[in-house]
Design brief:
about 375 residues, DNA Polymerase III, Chain A, domain 2, eight-stranded antiparallel beta sheet, 6 helices
Length: about 375
């Protein structure tokens, strides 16, 4: 194999694919990136057996071929090369090495045969639809913070993506939901053509993180293909294929409160800043903040026997009966960070029931927060 590729193009592509490669690998080939010449230039491919990213970069191909080299080492080399450099990549079959040349710099890397590189066989995809990158990214951004990290409840370790009917929408919606049992995030958009009848799937946390990084161009169109076991996203020269979580997502609709009759309207920025301030003295473990509501007034308080206490008062729009309720301050801040309008709307019931939080101006996303004892 003999190719010349522009440093900026190669670095951008390597930055996408090398993230998939785990730093510690018991299988040596999984630490490598596959480089293969093709009609479009040079194809780069990395996998961890659950997730695979393939990207093609423009290249001047002198001799066709393929090889695999350590992904993180190659990325670090290209990252440290000067801007504007032309990078020459050449394999030596007898010695099993790859030469990397740019200007006066020369590196020789050990290779492994490309025939040993695993292929994440995608199989047939039953549904394919196209959606604007910004819209799909929004679904992910609005929900990913609520993904559970508890490995025993593996079916919560991702975002549940499915098509359903929704109030306020004339047509079905493509909905994303994530929950860790303490909080729930839901976002949706009008279902794209081709999504109808798709299986409900759970997209793993690592795949979600990669999707967020790849969907940089807001105006681009991303093609999403789904089967019962895999998801594939194609965006320009990048193709991401991932296994799905094999599990049943719980009936989340049962935890979304319908009858909460106490409405609190509060300035989002003031509320978040006050929660952040009083939580400074909260314990690292509990992080509980108490909300004491009365007509037109909200008192936020934290009491920590080890470090002290804090109190702050806010003027709010609240006309229901007085209520004391506690929440995890970190969870409150995570949710308010997702709200886009100036006003946060909290629908409350009693100190032991979940609270519904939403943007006062938006109807396509909502959040549910379980209370804490304070």
């Amino acid at each position: 194999m003999k190719v010349i590729v522009e440093r900026a193009e190669l670095l951008k592509s390597l930055s996408h694919v090398h993230r998939v490669v785990e730093r510690r690998n018991t299988i040596p080939i999984l630490a490598n990136v596959l480089m293969r010449t093709g009609a479009g230039g040079l194809e780069l491919k990395a996998t961890d057996l659950d997730l695979e990213v393939v990207e093609t970069v423009p290249a001047e191909v002198g001799q066709a071929g393929a090889t695999t080299v350590p992904a993180h080492v190659l990325y670090d080399i290209v990252r440290k090369l000067p801007d504007g450099a032309q990078v020459a990549l050449e394999t030596s079959g007898e010695r099993g090495t790859l030469q990397v040349r740019a200007g006066r710099a020369r590196f020789t890397l050990q290779t492994l045969p490309e025939g040993d590189f695993p292929d994440l066989a995608a199989g047939e995809f039953s549904h394919t639809f196209q959606v604007k990158s910004a819209d799909f990214r929004r679904l992910v951004d609005k929900t990913q913070f609520a993904i559970s990290t508890e490995e025993t409840r593996y079916y919560l370790n991702g975002i549940y993506l499915h098509v359903t009917e929704a109030a306020g929408f004339e047509t079905p919606v493509l909905r994303a939901v994530a929950t860790d049992g303490h909080r729930l995030a839901q976002a949706q958009l009008a279902a794209p053509e081709g999504a109808a009848g798709m299986p409900g799937v759970i997209v793993p946390r690592k795949t979600v993180a990669e999707v967020q990084k790849l969907l940089e161009d807001k105006d681009a169109i991303v093609s999403v293909s789904l089967s019962a076991t895999k998801i594939r996203l194609a965006l320009g020269a990048i193709v991401l294929t991932s296994k799905l979580i094999d599990g049943t997502f719980p009936d989340y609709g049962r935890v979304i409160p319908q009858g909460n009759d106490k409405t609190l309207m509060v300035d989002k920025a003031d509320f978040a800043a006050a929660v952040d301030r009083v939580s400074t003295v909260s314990s690292e473990r509990g992080r509980a903040v108490k909300l004491s509501l009365s007509e037109g007034r909200l008192i936020l308080s934290v009491t920590n026997p080890d470090s002290g206490s804090a109190v702050e008062e806010l003027e709010v729009d609240y006309a229901a009966e007085a209520l004391d309720i506690g929440f995890n301050s970190r969870y409150l801040l995570d949710i308010t960070a997702q709200l886009e309008g100036d006003t946060a709307e909290l629908k409350l019931a009693d100190p032991g029931s979940p609270t519904l939080v939403r943007d006062s101006t938006k109807t396509d996303a909502l959040y549910v927060l379980m209370p804490m004892r304070v």
